DNA sequence: ACTTAATCGAGACGGTACGTCAGGTCTTGCC
DNA sequence: GGCAAGACCTGACGTACCGTCTCGATTAAGT
């Protein structure tokens, strides 16, 4: 997270255990209190750590919560279920399961909201949350092309644009369903969504 | 906004001008400061109003911002452009234009985030922001069915589910593109999105 | 303590009771904790008052303690005991009694120390603590002159210088005895001091 | 300052230079910042020393400042000027010159103030600051008695009491003039003070 | 015109959290 | 073992907003 590669690393080294304790305490506080009532003093107390230790490592609430929530998305992966539709359904369900957890619900949109006025924060979110998810889209498409379910790309730039589009559609739909409409993105919904995504409104009707 | 229809309403009536001034001041503060740095004391000062006046009408920051942002969405409408695709492109572009404004960018996701732990707030958002948008989906589908672009519904419950799905996909995609990916939802993107929405990944490829 | 004579005094007026409660709490905390361990947060709590209320009225610990300690000196007066020697002994004993109280012991020299680098603070000390005491010197001298114990002044400037000198000698001796030598300025000591002051080392020997 | 005479003193011996550097840095910081803004971390940095080194030798800020200020008083001596009055004037001027230095002004009364609640600190002040000064009083009296300016003592206990009294009067007056009245104890003032001390108010008038 | 009563501005109030700073301790690795 | 470096826990700092309250002054509707 922070590297001081130059020079000899003098002085007492930072406790590695503190980082983990702080992030776990942050998630715990998110569950109990939600974003707006979460205070850094409380997180420090839960983690058994001084407030100064926390501020030495994170610039503020936003950065801390991004790192705490980002770890939730580490478990996302794209298991091979044999078909494009099945692959999509699988990964969307995983994504929905993460968004169903209260620590993600309250924290994620809050930091996204803050990131609209803080470029460094947006970059941090992109690096640790968004880009890893986007890689799943690329991997899924490659697999579908290998199976012959999708045609190979001709224009690489166009291909990148399409991947971004698909990612926004998939992630956006699940987030909106979960947080705005406040309805569960369960198996039935995911089947319907995947059908529309693959076949379109006209084809799915 | 609030009615005290029972009883006779004696005494000095509330200033109608104050409401408008407060909401305008709220949007102004959202633009300049963003959600997290917006304070009610500052809004009151901008509006030339005492803090008590503000608290007499809104319960807090969340409710105030919902009302201030909701007004931005009042201008959304569904002009008849002759085809389903053109109708979708038109309304999506309008939606994107609203989300491009800084007062919406910073405020909207923040209150959505808060609403994950506050049912009354979620209901307020739904009523004044979400449901009016959802009506546009219904209106668009009816128009497309009248044109023969989409088959008439058979199962009304299934039809409601589909409308919700479409709404989550459309709104979610635009929001995600604009706020998370932080890229503009411009005409080119909207064309690509509409194509995928109507034809699906397979059909659009 | 603070007057806002101009204009109309709008807004909620300051609580008069709070001032008294805060000063009393300050003295209480001085007794229990001493200057260096006294915290404004603790004083606020003892006074049943918010920290902000305290800061609204005093700039900091120094100013607060000056006001709290100054009240102790309000009781100083110069009773007519019939002779210059008896008058001096009487007022010095009173002064010593005040300096024997723990709230004065810990607080007084601390603010004097701070005042060496803070002109406004020195002025505050002078106005509310020192000058009233100095008036007693002038009053005592006038009385002694009326009795014929001291000759009337000829040069008024010289008279002012002498009054200052006497004040520094009297106050300084008692303070030094009490705080530096840490011995009680009891009746015996006061008698000896008065004898030296009136007759000098040579005359007193 | 601290002796570990028992045992064999193994390991690296303490740097003698560090002690001097720390005390000098302390006085420098007192001049620049004053007592209340002086921090041990800053002193350590100025002295080019780690905070641990400092704490290994002094228990805290109070003890450190006492030692740093005490060195200022080492230069006090009682040169023989031929008469009691001249001797007093000489030593009082020296004392006043030390108190005029900012490192003494800010530091001395602060530690005296602290010493009202810390017996060990008071003892340290007495040993390293007060008692050496008091010796000057004894020496001056002996010299005056040898000259026949003062009668020889009859009661040794009474003599000790008188010496203490004189010391409190002299030191107290200079301290009060310098720090409380914040006026210079210059030659003119010292002449007036000495005259009153020797002849008394009545005799000096 | 005269009450009546809720509104308005101003700003003080009790709180809570902020982010920083200093005190004093502990843990490294080098000397 | 001393030492420089710097992380650590603790606790206070002074500030900013919160949402409530207390003022005196308006301001309409009902008399």
Strand content of chain A: under 5%
CATH class of the largest domain in chain A: Mainly Alpha
* CATH topology (level 3) name of the largest domain in chain A: Tetracycline Repressor, domain 2
**Domain module tally of chain A:** 2
Fraction in helix of chain A:
over 70%
Unreliable residue stretches of chain A: 1-5
**Major pleated sheet of chain A:** none
Protein name (chains A, B, C, D): TetR/AcrR family transcriptional regulator
Domain HTH tetR-type (chains A, B, C, D): 16-76
DNA-binding region (chains A, B, C, D): 39-58
Keywords (chains A, B, C, D): DNA-binding, Transcription, Transcription regulation
Walk me through this protein's architecture.
Four copies of one chain form a homotetramer. The first copy, chain A, has two domains: 16-57, Homeodomain-like (Arc Repressor Mutant, subunit A); 69-204, Orthogonal Bundle (Tetracycline Repressor, domain 2), CATH 1.10.357. Chain A has helices at 16-33, 40-47, 51-57, 61-70, 84-100, 102-115, 119-147, 156-180, 187-204. Chain A is mostly helical. At the A-B interface, helix 6, helix 7, helix 8 and helix 9 of A face helix 6, helix 7, helix 8 and helix 9 of B. Chain B binds a DNA duplex (31 and 31 nucleotides) through helix 2 and helix 3.
List the defining traits of the structure above:
homotetramer, 205 residues, mainly alpha, Arc Repressor Mutant, subunit A, elongated, DNA-binding, TetR/AcrR family transcriptional regulator (chains A, B, C, D), transcription (chains A, B, C, D), Homeodomain-like_sf (chains A, B, C, D)
């Amino acid at each position: 997270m922070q590297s001081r590669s130059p020079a000899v690393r003098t002085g007492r080294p930072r406790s590695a255990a503190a980082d983990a304790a702080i992030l776990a305490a942050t998630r715990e506080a998110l569950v109990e209190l939600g974003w707006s009532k979460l205070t850094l003093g409380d997180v420090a107390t839960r983690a058994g750590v001084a407030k100064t230790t926390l501020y030495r490592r994170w610039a503020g609430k936003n950065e801390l919560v991004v790192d705490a929530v980002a770890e939730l998305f580490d478990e996302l992966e794209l298991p091979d279920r044999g078909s494009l539709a099945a692959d999509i359904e699988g990964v969307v369900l995983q994504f929905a399961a993460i968004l169903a957890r209260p620590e993600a619900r309250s924290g994620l949109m809050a930091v996204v909201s803050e990131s609209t006025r803080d470029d460094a924060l947006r970059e941090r979110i992109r690096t640790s949350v968004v880009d890893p998810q986007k890689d799943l889209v690329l991997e899924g498409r490659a697999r579908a092309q290998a199976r012959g379910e999708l045609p190979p790309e001709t224009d690489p730039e166009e291909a990148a644009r399409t991947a971004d589009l698909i990612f926004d559609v998939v992630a956006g739909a699940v987030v909106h369903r979960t947080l705005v409409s406040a309805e569960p993105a369960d198996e039935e919904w995911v089947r319907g969504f995947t059908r529309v995504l693959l076949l379109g409104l006209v084809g799915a009707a």
